[in-house]
Amino acid sequence: MKKKIVKTLAVTTALTIAAASMVGCGNSGTADSNADNKASGDTQAAASDSKDAKDITGTVTMAGSTSMEKLANSLKEAFGAKYPGISVTAEFTGSSAGIESLEAGSVDIGNSSRELSDDEKSQGIVENVVAIDGIAVITDTANDVTKISSDDLAKVYTGEITNWKELGGQDEAIVVVGREAASGTRGAFEELLDIKDKCKYANELDSTGAVLAKVASTPGSIGYISLDVLDDSVSALAIDDVEATEDNIVAGKYKLSRPFVMATKGEISEQSEAVQTFFDYIQSDEGQEVIKKAGLILPQ
Amino acid sequence: METNTVSIIGKKRAGSIVESTARVIFLATAVVAIVAVLSITVYMILKGTPALASVGVTDILFGTVWEPTATEPHFGILYIILTSIVGTALAILIGVPVSILTAVFLAEVAPKKLAAIVQPAVELLAAIPSVIYGLLGLMILTPWMYGLEKKIFAGSQTHQFTGGANLISAVIVLAIMILPTVINISVSSIKAVPQQMKSASLALGATKIQTIFGVVLPAAKSGIMTAIVLGIGRALGEAMAISLVSGSAVNIPLPFNSVRFLTTAIVSDMSYSQGTHRQVLFTIGLVLFVFIMVINLILTRLIKKGEQEV
What we know:
The structure holds two protein chains of two kinds. By secondary structure, chain A is of the alpha/beta class. Chain A folds into two domains: about 55-130 and about 260-295, 3-Layer(aba) Sandwich (D-Maltodextrin-Binding Protein, domain 2), CATH 3.40.190.10; about 135-255, Periplasmic binding protein-like II (D-Maltodextrin-Binding Protein, domain 2, 3-Layer(aba) Sandwich). Helices cover about 40% and strands about 20% of the residues of chain A. In chain A, helix 3 (about 70-80) links the parallel strand 1 (about 60-65) and strand 2. The longest helix of chain A has 24 residues, at about 1-25. Chain B is globular, with a radius of gyration of 25 Å. Chain B has twelve helices and two strands. Chain B folds into two domains: about 1-50; about 80-310, MetI-like fold (Orthogonal Bundle), CATH 1.10.3720.10.
């Protein structure tokens, strides 16, 4: 009996490991090493390094976009490990609420996953773009449609266009794949196309990986994912004749992208030492690595 | 219970210390389980009822529109509840006959050598993590199902193509997942049928098959019922596997519709939800909890009834 249990356990473990590695492959391999030309804040970071990180004390409070939760939390973690004297707190109340808190002076940083309005800027709020979030629209590799206009894309997702032949492709039904209602990617996608709450999904999957797998294995499907997890198992559509590449997004040509702003009241140089240290950290190689790991694109 | 216990091992005093310590430890471990059940029940009720009050009982339980993040949110979970009920019922309908016949085969019909291969295979099926079922379902079952969907709804203007992620796919995965539970318990209850009963039946001239269906299965009835109820519990509570193959859009549970179960509704939204949306997820949890409790009550009834019969 005991032997049997051991055998069963061994097989189970092997299966689990196999499954884990299968799932794992999809996410790696995109963090390319173009860090060299982006290390603008190197000298500052070096300066604060020499000052001995542990001596700086203070607090950094931020509030705002729920989409930036992953970025804010990973920055908070990595920063906290290096500067134990500075306590960072983050709340996720929504972009506009975050900027309001900043205007009211209750937080140091207002997180916003959209560009600041002129009105907000006139209040003395400074837009510090720390990262750019890009969304790729994907199809299975056999699909011969390679581009789509943003109007047509909106129609596909609202159920007005249901066959690829209407988009110049084969006579194949469109399987509309998306994320669950509370997903940040879905929120951004629907907001950028102005189709919030109007989408008719055939599949609402709860992770980027699931969307990728579903689209890769389903002929005629269409889905959206964060740009950083895009791989060869699917093909990305050009939106309004613009390819989904980092360069196009940084240049601001690609429609499905949005800036992640960590806004401050007044220039960064006017902030407290703790807040300045935080922004120095974001600009350092380490900080930029954290941003890339969170699946985001570095602004130029 | 302040009686003096006397140990036959060692001196009286040493023995009684061991005895009393052991008693305290046993009591403590028993309390852990009771506290866990009670606190979960209290927590689910506390967390699940506020949304019922703020949104309205009928709006949640009998509403059919699920738009939790819209500017005017709707939290109707009727289709989600129906999906769980219909999906579980269909899975049982497919899984149970297969399981019982397999159990009969293993316990009565199969040659010893063959049973020695099949039995561990069934046990291994129980040990496979549910996400693996989902993964295989996603990679193998849904593409195949999509082919079928395309044939059936060819040229249809109204059908929304789901790429094979639909109620049937979920039901098939669930049916396979309940197999080991139902088979293993059925096998033990069939094996527990006294040999005399079978011998008597055979001696009266009944064939082996007649004996199995006329004597063995009726005698093992309460054990098999227990197996089925446990299978229902497993199917109702499964989330991981079916979240990958059911499509997870909220629709009426029709065979080729993309559907969302109670469990997958919680899993898919929990990580990002907030406010009333999150409270409603707890309400869904409460509904699921009530379902599971009802099933467990039925189970204890069945076990008691079985004990009385024996």
